Amino acid sequence: ELSCSAVNSLQEEIKAAEKKCNEAINKGDVDAVVGCYTDDAKILAPGSPMISGKAAIKEYFAGLAALGIGKSETDVLEVGGGGNNAYVIYNNTLYKADGSVFDNGKGLALYYKDNGVWKIYADSANSNAASAS
Predict the structure, then answer these.
(1) How far is CA 62 from CA 47, 83, 112, in A?
(2) pLDDT classification of 70: cutoffs 50, 70, 90
(3) Ramachandran category for residue 92: left, alpha or beta (phi over 0 → left; psi -120 to 50 → alpha)
(4) Distances (CA, A) of 12 to 66, 78, 90
(5) pLDDT value at residue 65
(6) Is the terminal CB of the chain with fewer CB neighbours within 10 Å at N or C?
(7) Which CATH number characterizes residue 28's domain?
(8) Could you please report the per-residue DSSP string of 76-105?
(9) Which residue range(s) make up the domain with 88?
(10) Does 18 reside within a domain?
(11) How many domains does the chain have?
């Protein structure tokens, strides 16, 4: 069982990793965003097949930028885990370049500590918008 200080440290480290990824998205730095993921990472995005590996992840985030996504805000709700594995449950809002909301939703990201650096190895997000039927 993790001590309180270990839990607090894990929360701080994961929140810092999430902040770093969001900052990269907000700068439009696709390479830095891809650097937030492990080499074999997977993204389970709404309305698309599984996105697997860094080349596909780069293409995915470049596609978001091409859609006019100008900003991402993530609110970390819960962090847990231990050793080299952690998870984060979050709310996320994506904004267009003009500041209007593109989408908001929630997700679950699984992190792996890779050579001392927390990186995402699985990210599943879904929209709060009602799906078209």
Answers:
(1) 17, 32, 24
(2) confident
(3) beta
(4) 32, 11, 14
(5) 85
(6) C
(7) 3.10.450.50
(8) EEEEEEETTEEEEEEEEEEEETTS-EEEEE
(9) 4-127
(10) yes
(11) 1
Q: Is residue 132 situated within a structural domain? A: no
Per-residue model confidence as pLDDT tens digits over 82-106: 999 999 999 999 999 899 999 999 9
Q: Express each pLDDT in 16-29 by its tens digit.
A: 999 999 999 999 89
Question: Are 16 and 24 a contacting pair, CB within 8 Å?
Answer: no
3-state DSSP call for residue 27?
Answer: helix
C-alpha–C-alpha distance, residues 114 and 118, integer Å: 6
Task: Classify residue 44 as exposed, middle or buried by CB count within 10 Å of its CB (0-12, 13-18, 19+).
Answer: middle
β-pairing, 117-127 vs 37-44, is: parallel
Place of tokens 């909301």: 101
- Could you give the count of Cα atoms lying within 13 Å of 51 in the half-sphere of its Cβ? 23
Q: Is 35 within the bounds of a domain?
A: yes
Contact residues for 130 (Cβ-Cβ < 8 A; gap 6+)? none
Mean pLDDT, rounded, of the chain: 91
How far apart CA 99 and CA 102 sit, in angstroms, is 9
pLDDT surpasses 80 at 130 = no
